[in-house]
Design brief:
Blueprint: H1 3-6, H2 10-15, E1 24-28, E2 43-45, H3 60-73, E3 89-93, E4 107-108, H4 110-122, E5 127-130, E6 133-134, H5 139-155, E7 158-161, H6 171-176, E8 185-187, E9 195-197, H7 200-217, H8 223-232, H9 248-258
Parallel strand pairs: 1-3, 1-5, 2-3, 4-6, 5-7
Antiparallel strand pairs: 8-9
Helix pairs in contact: 3-7, 4-5, 7-9, 8-9
Length: 261
């Protein structure tokens, strides 16, 4: 079944392609900017130590970044889900192009992730997608991430974080998280042909894209209302570590009712 249909994105995508006023921060690897299915996409890079444009299309970082960017911002007639092609992507590379694309999950340190979050917030992102594994986790790194997330909360920026790879689900994810398609997802391949991957890195941008479309359709909604709509419109929660499935269309209807009139 088409993954966008699984999470009821189809009617929402028919209603809107996204808004230029809803900037999505993409904390990931660099992107193959010259890919034909990204032509016309608005992708802005936050300057830093890592380049936003791929130097090696065969690197794991490039493949990962291009794949996730395709789920969010590819052309609607591409092989990718292309959820919100009219939403600008704010690219903050966090993965170095040091390994080949052999299925290895790119990773970053907590300090690098925290810095990237703060930079995306300062650069004007309304929501941020994080599809990253963390390396060298420590109490200091945890505090840095918590401070960055607190800043996002104060600024009304929503952050979507991939979680659950290697079966690491927990009660907090079950209570507050969402599930989305993460098996055999096809998106853009950095080297040309489409790429099919799985895992939470593929699932997270479905949630991010849905939020971007909600905000595009109801532009004056508060972040708290958007968060409430997308979490409470999901399937009923049960006492389990598995989070409920995203229902994008129900979330949109709920948000519209909140701001009716």
């Amino acid at each position: 079944m088409n993954p966008v249909e699984v999470v009821k994105l189809t009617p929402l995508m028919a209603h809107t392609r996204g808004s230029p006023d809803v900037t999505v921060g993409l904390i990931d690897g660099p992107v193959a900017m010259s890919h034909p299915d990204l032509m016309g996409a608005s992708i802005r890079e936050i300057p830093g130590s890592l380049a936003g444009t791929c130097a090696s299309a065969s690197s794991a970082a490039c493949r990962h970044g291009t794949f996730v960017a395709g789920i969010l911002g590819a052309r609607r007639d591409s092989p990718a889900p292309a959820i919100c092609p009219d939403c600008p992507l704010l690219l903050r590379p966090i993965f170095a192009e040091t390994t080949l694309g052999n299925g290895q999950m790119p990773s970053a340190t907590p300090a690098e992730l925290a810095a990237a979050l703060l930079e995306c917030i300062e650069a004007g992102a309304r929501l941020i997608n994080v599809s990253s594994a963390l390396a060298d986790f420590s109490s200091t790194g945890q505090r840095a991430i918590e401070e960055a997330l607190d800043q996002a909360l104060r600024r009304g920026v929503l952050v979507v974080v991939a979680a659950g790879n290697q079966g690491t689900l927990g009660r907090s994810i079950g209570r507050r998280g969402l599930s989305a398609p993460g098996e055999e997802i096809t998106s853009l391949g950095a080297e040309g042909p489409p790429l099919t991957l799985g895992g939470t890195s593929a699932a997270a941008p479905f949630v991010t894209g849905a939020i971007a479309l909600l905000w595009s359709g109801v532009p004056h909604a508060a972040a708290r209302a958007v968060h409430g709509a997308i979490t409470h419109a999901a399937a009923p929660r049960r006492p389990t570590v598995v989070p409920p499935l995203l229902d994008a269309w129900a979330a949109y209807q709920r948000l519209r009712q909140t701001y009716a009139g």
